[in-house]
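Hi everyone, sorry if this is the wrong subforum. Our group has a chain we'd like a structural model of before ordering constructs, and none of us has done structure prediction before. Sequence below.
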Amino acid sequence: MEVTTKRMSLVVGALGVLSFILGVIAENKKPASGTPITGKDVVICKYPADPTVMLGYLSFAFLVASTLAGGLSLFYPYKGKSIPWPALFQSTSFFVFFLISLGSTALAAVMLLLPTITEHKHLLSNVHYNLETTCPTAKTGLLGGGAFLALDAALFWLVSLMLADNAREDYFDDVMLAPPNMMPT
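Answer:
Right subforum, don't worry. Here is the predicted structure as tokens:
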């Protein structure tokens, strides 16, 4: 089975969509707060069982997988022909979308991990010595925003892949048209 840009784009897109779906479900399943149970000089927060933490980490994992597939797809030697990476970055549009892909991936990772880790911390550290505590949970909206950014990042990786494919075609057209003594190195 030959690796093609179409197959790689399907992999990147599918992983990005999975990250999006899991992030949105995690946001929707997150409880608003826990139930405070007052004891002697402590408040123990009881949180309902929910899959938010697991779904948040899975969403992040699929974001990472989508990013790795997207990044590798840009530099993979399709049909046995590799292109030097500086030749790819000579294309301004490719360079801009590559940077946007990296930036949106980083922002999505932060927005997925921050509430997931915070929620995980709240579940593990549920004994409070402040009797006024309201049993908080992670900030609402960050997981959903991170999910949308994960989808955006996958789409930007797909645009980068299309632009890399165009730059690859231009590079090989120039190599074929150049006289033998003028071949790029």
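For your construct planning: The beta strands are 35-38, 43-46, 127-128. Residues 142-177 form the longest helix (36 residues).
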